[in-house]
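FW: tagging you since you asked about this chain on Friday. Here's the raw sequence from the shared folder, copied in full. Didn't touch anything.
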Amino acid sequence: MSELAPHLLLWIGFAVMTGAVVWALLRPLAKRSEGKGDAQDLALYRDQLAEVSRDLERGVIAPLEAEAAKIEVSRRLLAAADAVEREKATPGGRRSPRAIALLVMLAVPVLSLGLYLSLGSPDMPDVPFAPRVTGPADQLPLDALVLKVEQHLKDNPADLRGWEVLGPAYIRQGNFTAAITAWSRAIILGGETGSRFAARGEAEVLSANGVVTPSAREDFVKAVKLNAHEPRAQFYLGIADVQDGKKDAAARRWKALLAAAPKNAPWRASVEAELRSLTNPASGPTAEQAGAAADMTPEARQQMIEGMVSGLATRLDKNPNDLAGWLRLIRAYGVLGKHGEAEAALSRARTTFATDKSALAELDAAEKSLPAQ
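HL: got it, structure written out here
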């Protein structure tokens, strides 16, 4: 119980502050109490009637004006008198506004405290902010690492290493716009390199839902000029070729990239899968390719897949007559568990190829191969 006392004192303090706020908000309700205001109004209106009569006798106002004033004051006097009579006829029948305000002021903090004590965890130890962003960088959660580096860069904006750490971290958070900014700062501070241009271009592609935009393409072109074997740049330039309908160019680019790549390159499986899809779009990855893809981090693999699928869907919006593309998209949605998107893609493809029996047969086969929901 002694350990609980500080927490209770804290919440009692919160309750008192809450009550003060509620009282301030409800104070206007308490400005009149128990009909006293109505009785005061009666006396005021009687005085006004007498004042109008005196003004008429002195000739200050005209008879017509005096009559109109008496009618208005009399109307208000009768209304106040009725209110007083109702109050007398129903003693205790109307709750005092002050009592209502007091009841609400006490009920809100008491109920809040009771709910917290029954549903909350008052005995849970504090988790101070400072320790959460201290310690070795490789042991920090991603959000804490990003926050720590951001705080460091506020005081040391010229720290190249900090911006190069933030770039990939922002990608993992899905904050692609911030990743573009981080890599732009790294290019300014550290100079132009193939890997930095490729990293910024990748962030631009992910920000555009998998579409290789003109600015991203420009970054990739700059990257391969500085390093002809930069894998990310060559991969996304191949995606750009596919989006432009230049499948042969994409195949040549990816074959050259694979020929120069180490056998254990973690991105090899993704490039091989894309290359195979150009010639056999209905096939899936081999066990060897799936194993290689498993070596990638879950975040990187998911971002890669989502980007490629989104880019394919965008391309099919512009060129819906690509049956192979529809088959790839339907299969990809099935693998990702996006059954609604797979059904929508099937419907659009069937509408596009409504008069092509061979194409409809392939679409039927693709539907049957989808994983069960």
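FW: The radius of gyration is 38 Å.
HL: agreed, and DSSP finds 18 helices and no strands in the chain.
FW: great, closing this out.
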